[in-house]
Amino acid sequence: MGTGQNLMELLVAQQEEAFRGLHWHGTFQEYLEIVAQNPKVARTAFQRIYDMILSYGYETYVENRQEITHYNFFDDPIGEGKDAVFGLDRPLMELVQFFKAAAHGYGAERRVLLLHGPVGSSKSTIVRLLKKGLEAYSHTDEGAMYTFSWQIDEETFPCPMHEEPLHLVPPPLREEFLAQLNQGIEPPVIIEGDLCPACRFYYNDLMGRYNGDWTKMIKHVQVRRLLLSEKDRVGVGTFQPKDEKNQDSTELTGDINYRKIAEYGSESDPRAFNFDGEFNIANRGLVEFIEVLKLDVAFLYDLLGASQEHKIKPKKFAQTDIDEVIIGHTNEPEYRKLQSNEYMEALRDRTVKVDIPYVTRLSDEIKIYEKDYNPDRVKGCHIAPHVIDVAAMWAVLTRLEEPKKHNLTLLQKLKLYNGQLVEGFTEDSIRELKAEAKREGMEGISPRYIQDKVSNALVNQREGCVNPFMVMNELEEGLNHHSLITSEEQRARYRELLAVVKDEYADIVKGEVQRAISADEEGIKALFANYIDNVKAYIRREKVRNKYTGQDEPPNERLMRSIEEKIDIPESRKDDFRREIMNYIGALALEGKTFDYKSDARLQKALELKLFEDKKDSIKLTSLITSVVDPETQEKIDAVKTRLIRDYGYCDVCATDTLNYVASIFARGDTG
After folding, report:
1. Which helix (H) or strand (E) holds 516?
2. Element (H, E) at 552
3. What is the per-residue pLDDT across 621-633, written as a single tens digit (0 to 9) for each?
4. What domains can you pick out in the chain, each with its CATH number?
5. Strands annotated E in 386-500
6. For 174-185, what is each residue's pLDDT tens digit?
7. Are residues 581 and 528 in contact, defined by beta-carbon separation less than 8 angstroms?
8. In Å, how far are 241, 497, 505 from 468, measured between CA atoms?
9. For 83-87, 411-415, 598-602, which range has the lowest pLDDT when averaged over its residues?
């Protein structure tokens, strides 16, 4: 048996198995049995999308004393993280709350959902996830849904709007039918809407043929499994406005097929009509409106009826029922136009706006870029440590509002938002900062700009490695041509923030080189434990047991001050600093977390500087920038470089560049 035959048999076997599950056909009675066993097959579009999100699970966590829900669906498990959304748990909670309210029929289902935010803030990505999720969900047993076709005179006529088969239940009988079906079912099955014009035509034609005998008419109905697909235009639609002269409402509600008029004799015959507008094909699923507020006013009437009444008006036909989620997205300038346009009042009244801001947490912004710039995606070029960090740091700084507290810098605010401890500020401080900055995240640099400049640096590098300065230079040079920066004042502010990032980067690499020189994490841990033991004893007015002598001794003030002085804690502030450390240890303990030397950035820096100070005389790094290096010193420098490569992810090129850069800093006498 040949390989080709084996592969063919494998494909055939898998195809047959998939076909049986996903291409079910049956009678209307068989469908009623399915509904009785699994009422969820008859869910509305809003119920289905809400259940789809929940089907991937969720996690809760506490941030700034508020419980936040993270929905795993937005990690893009379907696409293995390709469209994952980071740092937007709060807006996404609001989005899911909208779907929950709509699923329960509280009124939100009669609104247009509008995602509003600056360019590049993931609005389109969120909608793409929802569309992709619905498609995948319709292929699962849990997300199974059905529609029907008409079998007439050996011809098959699928419902053009793939509507719910329960629409075939005559309206006068629905109340009694549902009362019997819904016994013991929660939530109950509901039937909203009637047959589309095409199905209504076949229904009435067959009822006339059989003198009103519904039981004979229904035998012409074949129910089938419905699989949503944007590419096949089934249950998922997308509409993008064109220029005003070319906008045509038939793109939403379908149009007459003039070639079939001769065959059927009338424009009002539904068989001569193409029910292929975006509202038609998106029935039972979701329709996306790209830049929805650029729609011509005439389109808005269709949009209002579709949202509020769940009806559309195809040309030459009566109003037609639809069941779909209408979701649009727009940017700030367009939304401001909506607010100032009195003719748009009806749309504003029927719109639920969810703000999708830029990310303001550094760790989440870093994840956005690491998705594209990682060793698996970038081949043949090394990305030096902190390239992504500095780019993300600058992007987030441009989005933050200057704090009103005079003793807090913008960089410290960034660190607070990122979960780092800043002296004198608590979780309550973070809540106050966010409360006073209502528009934070709605302005600033887009992730797309960062991605463009990182890409430029990758293309323009010559030595097989991109370092942070290459990217920062690209970011700065690009400001002169940035289309969304409209004032020199804004351009100057962004350059100032880039200078802040450069200073922070200098501190970061100095710390890494210092740690590489000391190269003793166990030493830092031991120093940290010793310091904490002494601080605890100091605050509690106790003594410390000497591990070597076994004697109880007073807290080692000299040790504590030698560490605290490294981060400029004055004598007058030492008690406050030590209490803050103890309070932080207690707060973490209540959350079941452990305090270590990395928990407090200031303390970590102090410990590293202390250890570095104890060892720095063994290597003269400044000799790097001289032309003569003795063999013993060169050996020690090579050892430091090896540690940078091994422990911090440097390559030989960027490790050498970093050591030269830090050596130049030390040569100026800046070792802090």
Report:
1. helix 488-518
2. strand 552-553
3. 655 555 556 777 7
4. 24-181+189-357 (3.40.50.300), 362-515 (no CATH), 520-613 (no CATH)
5. 465-466
6. 999 999 999 888
7. no
8. 41, 15, 9
9. 598-602
